[in-house]
User: Which sequence fits this backbone?
């Protein structure tokens, strides 16, 4: 069956821009949830990034199936894993210390929890899982990471979230010091989106 469109499960305009850029040559219409006319609340109660991404994509695919549409729904889930903290905050990255707590406070707290921890034990990674769920029930998944270390202070003003405390040894820079194009090229989300594009190209287009 022919796929008419890709619907991306986010309202975040930066993510939408990135997906448009990466998926542009698939020759398929790309819509946000809003553009597809979907506004449902989804509880992300999975225990892995992959499960949460699949839960979001499945819920939206179900809505589109009811309308008889043939579409691919993409959803992502991402977060920061710090090895010394048993991979916290992990899938709770957005909710860590409360959804409304500022990242200045969250970041200061994480640096404090790593006080006295030497460089080699400060390893961390951003993880991104992307799920593709088709309205006919097919499911594909992609995962990528960006490896680095938790720094000793906040640096940089680009990016968002935990970027100011995430140090990239190969670049000798913090993630919040990268320019946005460079970050998209090397980031967990950029790499996972490119992987997913290859899967869709092979399997569907
Ligand atoms: P989401 O699943 O993309 O909404 O990301 C969940 C949370 O993980 C975000 O709210 C951030 O706290 C954190 N996060 C994910 N990706 C990044 C990133 O590239 N930089 C900084 N923080 C990130």
Assistant:
């Amino acid at each position: 069956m022919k796929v008419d469109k890709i619907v991306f499960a986010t309202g975040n305009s930066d993510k939408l821009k990135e997906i448009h850029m990466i998926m542009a040559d698939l020759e398929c219409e790309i819509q946000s949830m809003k553009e597809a006319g979907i506004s449902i609340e989804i509880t992300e109660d999975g225990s892995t990034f992959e499960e949460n991404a699949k839960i979001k994509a499945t819920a939206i695919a179900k809505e589109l199936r009811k309308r008889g549409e043939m579409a691919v729904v993409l959803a992502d889930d991402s977060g920061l894993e710090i090895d010394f903290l048993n991979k916290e905050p992990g899938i709770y990255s957005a909710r860590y210390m409360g959804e409304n707590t500022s990242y200045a406070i969250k970041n200061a707290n994480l640096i404090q929890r790593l006080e006295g921890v030497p460089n080699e034990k400060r390893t961390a990674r951003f993880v991104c899982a992307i799920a593709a769920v088709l309205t006919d029930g097919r499911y594909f998944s992609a995962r990528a990471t960006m490896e680095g270390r938790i720094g000793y202070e906040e640096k940089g003003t680009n990016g968002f979230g935990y970027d100011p405390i995430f140090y990239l040894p190969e670049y000798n820079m913090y993630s919040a010091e990268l320019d946005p194009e460079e970050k998209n090229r090397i980031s967990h989300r950029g790499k996972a989106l490119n992987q997913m594009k290859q899967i869709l190209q092979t399997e569907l287009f």
Residues 49-66 form the longest helix (18 residues). The beta strands are 5-8, 29-32, 71-82, 88-89, 123-134, 139-150, 166-168, 173-174.
